[in-house]
């Protein structure tokens, strides 16, 4: 692990400890940096904001690529759901307890809803753009992207607040609802 990766991991660990001890709203970026043994400037080199510790994810390009690879004759909603499924199964399994802890803070902190919505807009745009790139009507693509992202976000937050072990199963169940496959 590089020094940069170690610093980022230390910041993440410190943030989660402080969120658990003090709550999200009572924790500052300066406190996270101090706990990690770095400067506040170093914190902001790794994360543009405190909420990015919890909200930021690298998955949009993976999801978009998986959607673009779906068969052209597949309807937009089915292609979006299949692409999300394919993307999820292609990613290395996350450390479930760490992901769950992060999502629990998000689901239980009203002040994070705006950050989650901003991140969701970016993901929704990536899904819609991928659908348009494979030939979908832009309006249909936006609707399919919104529905798919709604199912994905609901499954993530429900999983975080529950005790089910497998996030992949939760995501798959939510996506099946979109296709009435239950």
Walk me through this protein's architecture.
73% of the residues lie in helices and 0% in strands. It has 182 residues and is an all-alpha fold. The chain folds into two domains: 3-47, Homeodomain-like (Arc Repressor Mutant, subunit A, Orthogonal Bundle), CATH 1.10.10.60; 53-179, Orthogonal Bundle (Tetracycline Repressor, domain 2), CATH 1.10.357. It starts with a helix and ends with a helix. The model has no long low-confidence stretch (mean pLDDT 90).
From the 3D structure, determine the CATH topology of the largest domain.
Tetracycline Repressor, domain 2
Number of strands: 0
Write down the CATH class of the largest domain.
Mainly Alpha
Beta percentage is under 5%
Q: Which residue ranges are poorly predicted, with pLDDT under 50 across at least 5 consecutive positions? A: none
Rounded Rg: 18 Å
How would you sum up the major sheet? none
Q: Briefly, what is this?
A:
This protein has 182 residues and is mainly alpha-helical. Helix content is 73%, strand content 0%.
């Amino acid at each position: 692990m590089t020094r940069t990766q170690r610093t980022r991991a230390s910041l993440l660990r410190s943030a989660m400890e402080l969120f658990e001890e003090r709550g999200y709203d009572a924790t500052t970026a300066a406190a996270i940096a101090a706990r990690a043994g770095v400067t506040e400037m170093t914190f902001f080199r790794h994360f543009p904001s405190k909420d990015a510790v919890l909200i930021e994810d690298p998955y949009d390009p993976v999801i978009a690529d998986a959607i673009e690879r779906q068969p052209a004759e597949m309807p937009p909603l089915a292609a979006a759901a299949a692409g999300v499924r394919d993307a999820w199964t292609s990613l290395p399994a996350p450390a479930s307890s760490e992901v769950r802890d992060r999502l629990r803070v998000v689901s239980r902190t009203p002040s994070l809803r705006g950050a989650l919505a901003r991140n969701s807009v970016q993901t929704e745009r990536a899904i819609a753009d991928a659908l348009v790139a494979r030939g979908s009507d832009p309006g249909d693509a936006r609707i399919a992207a919104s529905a798919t992202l709604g199912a994905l976000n609901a499954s993530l937050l429900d999983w975080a607040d529950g005790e089910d072990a497998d996030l992949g199963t939760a995501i798959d169940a939510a996506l099946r609802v979109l296709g009435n496959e239950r």
